[in-house]
Amino acid sequence: xxxxxxxxxxxxxxxxxxxxxxxxxxxxxxxxxxxxxxxxxxxxxxxxxxxxxxxxxxxxxxxxxxxxxxxxxxxxxxxxxxxxxxxxxxxxxxxxxxxxxxxxxxxxxxxxxxxxxxxxxxxxxxxxxxxxxxxxxxxxxxxxxxxxxxxxxxxxxxxxxxxxxxxxxx
Amino acid sequence: xxxxxxxxxxxxxxxxxxxxxxxxxxxxxxxxxxxxxxxxxxxxxxxxxxxxxxxxxxxxxxxxxxxxxxxxxxxxxxxxxxxxxxxxxxxxxxxxxxxxxxxxxxxxxxxxxxxxxxxxxxxxxxxxxxxxxxxxxxxxxxxxxxxxxxxxxxxxxxxxxxxxxxxxxx
Lengths: 170, 170
Fold this sequence. Notes:
The structure is a homodimer. By secondary structure, chain A is of the alpha+beta class.
């Protein structure tokens, strides 16, 4: 049901899904919450594989991430979860239990205490080792004008586990 | 001689070379300078493809980058440039004209005014749109103890051009 994978082989898939529909970024809390991300990526720092994910300070996820210091990223490969991604990109976890609302399955993580979105095939479990709060003065004006205020914090999550899981095996 | 490529198809290659021997990070100046990077990666922010490269404040490249706000990344695919990468990872451009010292070819960029390392096959031309100066208090102690002081600045370079070039066609 689970298959360990080398994430290097899925970097193009992750980038493709990230920029076409988005990925699920999930954090734990009094109830787990997932949001849609369309920005971020897999990098390498300090001899570690690092998944960088951006979260705006206004988001419900922001407070949860500050507390939990860990997250999962779930990537749909063949799964049709476009409607759920659209919902999670436009609704706050303050107002909805998104897993319940959308009938998504919170499957327990293998290495960390944060669930994955069971409807997806590819999953990353990450522990935050660093974060950057965006500094507006270091950003070009064109981007600043278009996308801010409400700046992002870039969370650098070390990839602790990466695997495929059959979404039909709920 | 030049072939435009979609960088998405080379993300695994870039990650592999980054973490095995390194890539050339080149900046312009009174003379162009190249250094070896083993950290960084291709991400997506603000609807743009972004190559993040880290540069320590002590490096000769740091001052050049602050002035030029652009850089190239040259990736060896089949080229055997291990000795040059080793040299560029351990010697400063303050003391050496590395292109001359190593017999590397500074081929003019296509979109920006910074050269590429002609001995490599795959090239990225990037314009800096954002930078982050690392904040030690947001880093876990284990990494801080092992790799710092002399913190990195993370330069976010929008990928403006990506292409293959035959290294034999000098």
